[in-house]
Design brief:
The chain is an alpha/beta fold. Helices cover about 20% and strands about 30% of the residues. It has helices at about 20-25, 30-40, 60-65, 80-95, 110-115, 210-220; strands at about 5-10, 45-50, 70, 95-100, 120-135, 145-155, 165-175, 180-190, 190-195. α4 (about 80-95) packs across α5 (about 110-115). The structure holds zinc ion (ZN). Zinc ion (ZN) binds near residues 102, 103, 154 and 200.
Length: about 240
């Protein structure tokens, strides 16, 4: 049997997530819910880390053992230290996969990887979102219905401040009329990146089986094809006589 994919589910888990509005939906935190459904898949081994952990849960040793990093952050983006971000970017460039969920569009590592602002418009009105697949042959869309509904979600709307994606896998339509590129892929050197919009903390989005299947698919897609130890610029001898 091949080696399992080592996933680290990182959540800022700030005080707002311990309020009843969130804790009633995710009693142990969103990171635990996400890791639990990932661990139901025989190909995945998921662990968790939070901002309050030593080295913000993202030490060199932890990152070296991570194949795919999943990120949820919102009110504490600026508490993530620049040296932590640098370690993440280095691992992505050398092959680690990464999945940025919902409000991670404004996280330091996502903006650094994109080179753009990650801006969007938003509205918190518990409105309906209908998500459509735009790339049916993409591995992240495998086994997902051509469209499905989230009864209540925060609206995220275009224009979205990202570079042109490698592929747009999903778009979302919101009851209030806005649309959004809800699932988009990127590659930075050896590392694959997926941004996925659903996941406002007061709605049971990560308990939804379709959402869970998309995140499982995304982990499998983002796992490293090749991981390299260094991105130095070696001075190399010629292959032919000069
Ligand atoms: Zn939100």
């Amino acid at each position: 049997m091949s080696k399992k994919i080592n996933v680290l589910v990182w959540n800022e888990y700030a005080d707002d997530q311990k309020n009843p509005a969130v804790a009633n939906v995710y009693p142990k935190g969103m990171h635990i819910t996400i890791a639990d459904f990932l661990n139901n898949n025989p190909d995945i081994q998921a662990k968790t880390a939070v901002l309050a952990d030593e080295e913000q849960g993202l030490s060199d040793a932890v990152l070296d053992n991570t194949d795919v990093l999943i990120w949820w952050g919102h009110i504490a983006h600026d508490k993530v230290e620049d040296k932590t971000v640098k370690r993440i970017i280095d691992r992505v460039q050398r092959g680690m996969g990464s999945i940025f969920l919902h409000s991670a569009h404004k996280s330091k590592p996502f903006m650094a990887l994109m080179g753009t602002s990650g801006h969007l418009c938003w509205r918190e009105a518990a409105e309906k979102e209908r998500i459509w697949i735009t790339s049916p042959a993409h591995p992240i869309a495998e086994g997902i219905p051509e469209q499905f509904v989230l009864e209540h979600e925060e609206m995220y709307g275009e224009p979205f401040g990202i570079p042109q994606p490698l592929q747009t896998v999903f778009i979302g339509w919101f009851q209030g009329g806005n649309v959004f590129r809800s699932g988009v892929t990127f590659q930075r050197e050896y590392g694959r990146i997926f941004y996925f919009q659903p996941g406002h903390e007061t709605f049971p989005i990560y308990h939804n089986e379709i959402i869970q299947k998309i995140i499982v698919n995304a982990v499998k897609w983002a796992k490293p094809i090749v991981k390299v130890n260094s991105l130095d610029c070696p001075n190399v001898p010629p292959l032919e006589n000069l």
